[in-house]
Write a structure and sequence with these properties.
With 368 residues, the chain is an all-alpha fold. 77% of the residues lie in helices and 0% in strands. The chain has 12 helices and no strands. The longest helix has 33 residues. The protein is globular.
Length: 368
């Protein structure tokens, strides 16, 4: 906190001499970013709560399934599009790659490690529907690879969006994972009965969504501006800060929910958690990267190499690892979780070393 407020004070001193921006709370980028960050975490939690309440009411219908699936993506999508619309392509790349990497390594690693530990070391067996999701994630990495190789093109953009729409259609045609008690009973694992839950009123779910959506729209721009300005002051690439900060703001509720499910130790809960995380990653490797390409073409963004290429390649590697562990292995263990943790450490070090020092003249104005 001392470092945080000291840099904020120094920034305000510089801005007071003539070249400043007007901040929402009247502070510099460090305090402004911290406050906006807290609001975004709360907003993501609100959207998650609203989606869960409405999911209990409408998830059986096609329309309900589409709405709930989109709600899981909404916070990050709004965040991502806000950055692109304001011209902050670097922030957008850092945010989407960081979110995908954290989900594929930290979140899935915790899911496997905590799940296996809760089962007293027993292996985890993913159901066929979840394994198919892993195969789809692996296939979607080809979209990411094409974007890495070709940069901004209409073809890549529409390919990513088209793949995501097909995935949505396929998901709606596929039944939810069946109850997986058989393997647990064979392993001597008894599933605890869930406590009886009371149905929440629908208006409460909509209320959470309205509050969460409003906060995301309001605080996305200040947070992005703060990160870009702070990166300029610290002489680092905005990709670096977005890579580590954006996932916490947009993915924290989903990650905590998956960990909570994994702690139950039964196969059904672990499969649901794994499926949710894999499905969210497919959204990033297809829909969000497709939107990224279309914005790049229409707004004339310059493809920055190796920064953009490396970030998306690291996303591809982590997504491929998560898909491979889920699809090619007959069962999953806590050792797989440890491997994913180690992969995050390697990827984080690579991102830090390649983006920690940048020429201040290359800084991009926020434009917000």
């Amino acid at each position: 906190f001392f470092f945080f407020f000291r840099n904020n004070r120094q920034f305000n001193e510089i801005k007071s001499k003539g070249k400043g921006e007007i901040w929402m709370f009247g502070f510099g980028p460090f305090v402004e970013g911290f406050i906006s960050f807290l609001f975004l975490v709360f907003a993501s939690w609100c959207v998650g709560e609203g989606g869960e309440i409405l999911g209990k009411k409408y998830d059986a219908s096609i329309i309900g399934g589409l709405v709930i699936a989109w709600l899981n993506t909404a916070p990050e999508a709004i965040f991502f599009i806000t950055a692109l619309n304001s011209g902050n392509a670097r922030f957008a790349v850092g945010a989407v790659s960081g979110s995908a990497v954290v989900v594929c390594t930290i979140a899935l690693g915790a899911c496997l490690y905590i799940g296996a530990t809760s089962r007293n070391g027993a292996d985890i067996q993913l159901q066929p529907a979840v394994k198919m999701q892993c195969a789809i994630l692996g296939a979607s990495t080809w979209v990411t690879l094409v974007i890495v190789m070709t940069g901004f093109t209409w073809t890549s953009g529409f390919a990513g969006i088209g793949f995501y729409l097909w995935f949505m259609w396929y998901s709606l045609q596929t039944k939810e994972p069946e109850n997986a008690k058989g393997h647990d009973e064979e392993m001597g694992i008894v599933e605890e009965e869930d406590e009886e839950e009371h149905d929440e009123p629908v208006h409460k779910g909509f209320g959470f969504l309205v509050v969460g959506g409003f906060l995301i729209i309001v605080f996305s721009s200040p947070f992005i501006t703060s990160v870009v300005e702070a990166a300029a002051e610290l002489h680092v690439n905005p990709i670096l800060l977005a890579f580590f900060l954006a996932p916490i703001a947009s993915e924290a509720p989903e990650i905590l929910e998956s960990i909570s499910l994994s702690r139950k130790g039964n196969a059904q809960s672990i499969n649901i958690a794994y499926s949710n995380l894999i499905g969210g990653t497919i959204t990033k490797t297809t829909l969000l990267l497709g939107i990224f390409c279309i914005f790049g073409v229409t707004k004339g963004f310059e493809w920055e190499s190796p920064a953009f290429s490396l970030s998306l390649f690291l996303l591809l590697v982590c997504a491929g690892a998560a898909a491979g562990i889920g699809y090619f292995f007959k069962s999953q263990t806590k050792q797989h979780g440890i491997c994913l943790f180690a992969l995050f450490a390697v990827v984080g070090i690579i991102q830090y070393l390649t983006n920690v020092n940048v020429d201040p003249s290359l800084s991009v104005e926020s434009g917000i």
